Amino acid sequence: MPTDIIMPQMGESIVEGTITKWLKKPGDKVQRDEPLFEISTDKVDAEIPAPASGVLQEIKVTEGTTVNVNTVVGTIAVDGEAATKPADKAPETKTSSAGVPPPAVAGASRPRTQEPAPPTPAAHEEEEEARSSPLVRKIAREHGVNLAQLAGTGLGGRITKQDIMSFIESQASQPARVGTDAFVRPAERSEAPTPLPAPRPAAPYPGDLVPMTNMRKIIAQRMIESRRTSAHVHCMYEVDFTRIVNLRNKHKAGFEQRHGARLTFMPFFVRAAVIALQQWPIINASLEGDSIRYHRNINMGIAVALDWGLIVPVLKNAGDLNFLGLQRGITDLGERARTKKLKPDDVEGSTFTVTNPGQFGAVFGLPIINQPNSAIMGVGGITKQPMVITDKDGSDSIAIRSVVHLTLGYDHRLIDGAVADQFMALVKKNLETWSEEVG
Q1: Would you call 302 helix, strand, or coil by DSSP?
Q2: 364 near 405, Cβ under 8 Å?
Q3: 326 contacts 349 by C-beta, under 8 angstroms
Q4: Which of 12, 145, 337, 342 has the fewest Cβ atoms within 10 Å of its own Cβ atom?
Q5: What share of the chain is helix, strand, coil (3-state, %, to 5)?
Q6: Are strands 291-293 and 286-288 parallel, antiparallel or unpaired?
Q7: pLDDT band at 115 (very low <50, low <70, confident <90, very high)
Q8: Do the bridges between strand 291-293 and strand 300-302 make them parallel or antiparallel, or are there none, so unpaired?
């Protein structure tokens, strides 16, 4: 028998996935555990390996289609089997409780005037359940949405998470209607309003119209949700980074030789932030309703720019790691993000986030908070600039120094400006007076 290829469940909360790319065509040979197709979920993009060796017999779910977990998306013919599409099974004949098949009903015997009975509430619920996932129905209940209002874009008209979120967004963006109907005379109320002329379609702009990828849709949704959720405020600090630039230049060759890993600037920023978070735990906290959750651990989200989007894998328990552990963890997460080897647990549970727009030349950025975090630190580019230096005797001089600008985006509902500034002042001090061994 052919081996079924199923949509895997990439975490407890994942109920559906989108096939973004098939890496093999029907008729191609595949090896067990060889990457077979790529999927995108609400949490992570990943390559899915082949469940068996053989020949890819059939692709049942095409690229760009979203299906529930455990759905059969294709089949593999094992060695010796023909890689052809199996014939459709003949429909089974239902029998009565006595074992006798029910009589066939000819189409001509049905009266033309007979209309089907309206569906019962139970039948309606079964229909909605069949064309939506548990997650979609949960969102619908929370927002009071009747799924019958939605036209699904998924397989067979199935309502996807993106469908219902787009519907909710569209309803929220519509202006509230003023209830003036009570002041209209009954005679006027019964008259149909004069229809407005249909607007003329706008001339299309030249260029290609390309549908958004699943990851792009999720990023767009989360950015809007974060802006609507948190009261964003930003503060920026200029840091004399010369000491660390010199330290890295001195140790990077030996570090890589000893540990087999490149010495980058990111663990310096993460370590400086960890020390400051330990002193200012409110920056590492999050809001839960009318309460504040002070997190016991520091789980550092590290934003990674990919060719196809942005993802934030999480370095768990960063406060318990030494400098070498931070560097190894950051390198590992970055490599697995770029090769689509992250698991759902790798992108969950962050309590604070660091993003690095400076790697592309930005002087600084104003990052959007990664929910449910309350703060995010942006790292700008490292440049050489003239600075006024004061020596121990109080004398001033001008010198060329390596400078970096750090930005903290924080939720003003939870974090006051004075606290945010004191936190960033400590991060700045930790970097400018760095004394730890780099391993």
Answers
A1: strand
A2: yes
A3: no
A4: 12
A5: 35, 25, 45
A6: antiparallel
A7: very low
A8: unpaired
* Residue 330 per-residue DSSP state: H
In the structure encoding, which two tokens stand for residue 152, read together?
């699904």
State yes or no: pLDDT of 39 exceeds 70. Answer: yes
Q: How far is CA 386 from the centre of its chain?
A: 41
The string of pLDDT tens digits covering residues 262-320 is 999 999 999 999 999 999 999 999 999 999 999 999 999 999 988 888 899 999 999 99
In the chain the first and final C-alpha atoms are separated, in Å, by 55
CA distance readout (Å), 408 to 138, 236, 263, 330:
35, 6, 24, 20
> How far is Cα of residue 394 from the mean position of the Cα atoms in its chain?
51
Buried b / exposed e over 228-261, threshold 16 CB at 10 Å, is eebebbeeebebbbbbbbebbeeeeeebeeeeee
With 60 as the cut, is the pLDDT of residue 142 above it?
A: yes
Could you report the per-residue pLDDT of 1-36, keeping only the tens digit for each?
A: 889 999 988 776 678 888 989 999 999 999 998 999
Q: Count CA atoms within 13 Å of residue 412 on its CB side.
A: 9
Decide which of 367 and 345 is more confident.
367
pLDDT over 90 (residue 167) = no
406 within 8 A of 427, measured Cβ to Cβ: yes
DSSP secondary structure letters along 377-427:
EEE---EEEEEEEE-TTS-EEEEEEEEEEEEEEEETTT--HHHHHHHHHHH
Round to whole Å and give the CA distance between 293 and 271: 23
- Interatomic CA distance for residues 57 and 353, integer angstroms: 44
Predicted confidence at residue 378, as pLDDT, reads 97
User: Distance between CA 339 and CA 159 in Å, rounded?
Assistant: 30
Gap between the Cα atoms of 128 and 118, Å rounded: 15
- Catalytic positions: 412, 416
- Which residue type is seen at 51? P
Distance CA 288, CA 251 (A): 44
To the question of pTM greater than 0.85 for the whole model, the response is: no
Q: Using 50, 70 and 90 to split pLDDT, how confident is the model at 326?
A: very high
Nearest-angstrom CA–CA distance, 285 and 305: 25
